[in-house]
Amino acid sequence: MEIIKGIYLGDLRNEMTHLQSGKTIVTDAPLDNQGKGESFSPTDLMSGSLAVCMLTIMGIVAKRNNIAIEGIQFKVIKIMASDPRRVSEIHVEFDMPLRNYSEKEKDLLRNAAVTCPVAKSLHPDIIQNVNFNYK
């Protein structure tokens, strides 16, 4: 079943549409690879997808276990390698809301994050560094 359709707009820019919702995303090549860097690059999307996949699975686990996680914020750092040009590391940092999470809850959330489908789909050579900042 098709889930996305896309078009090359020229000048290293693409647009893709999520068929079920009609939402679109535009991508640009990054400045360091002949692009304008005016939107997400494909590797930015991949790196960000790791973080939001982790949050989605954390949300499922949180809902099932009655753990409040609303307000989690995250930062993503993508590190590129050359020869061949590829993503070599993705660092995801979660800033957890001010709540008294038990050690069990922390373990459930961490395990949910690191076992999300995107994390399990990325090549094992890509270093995934995940940190949780509890206040």
Describe the model:
There is one protein chain. The chain has two domains: 4-33, no CATH class; 42-133, GMP Synthetase, Chain A, domain 3, CATH 3.30.300. It is an alpha+beta fold. Helix 1 (42-64) packs antiparallel against helix 2. A hairpin with a 5-residue loop joins strand 2 and strand 3 (24-28). The strands form two sheets. It has a three-stranded antiparallel sheet, with no helix packed on it. A three-stranded mixed sheet has the order 4-5-6, with helices on one face. The chain has helices at residues 42-64, 103-114, 117-121; strands at residues 4-10, 13-18, 24-28, 73-81, 86-95, 127-133. The radius of gyration is 17 Å and the shape is globular. The longest helix is centred in the middle third of the chain and has 23 residues, at 42-64. It is built from three helices and six strands. The model has no long low-confidence stretch (mean pLDDT 97). Helices cover 30% and strands 33% of the residues.
**Gap between N and C termini, in Å?**
43 Å
CATH class of the largest domain: Alpha Beta
What is the CATH-assigned architecture of the largest domain? 2-Layer Sandwich
Low-confidence stretches: none
Give me the Rg, rounded. Answer: 17 Å
Widest β-sheet, arrangement of strands: 1-2-3
* H and E string: EEEHEEHHE
Please count the beta strands (DSSP E, at least 2 residues each): 6
Number of domains: 2
Shape: globular
CATH domain fold name of the largest domain: GMP Synthetase, Chain A, domain 3
The largest β sheet comes out as: 3 strands, antiparallel
The oligomerization state is single chain
* Helical run tally: 3
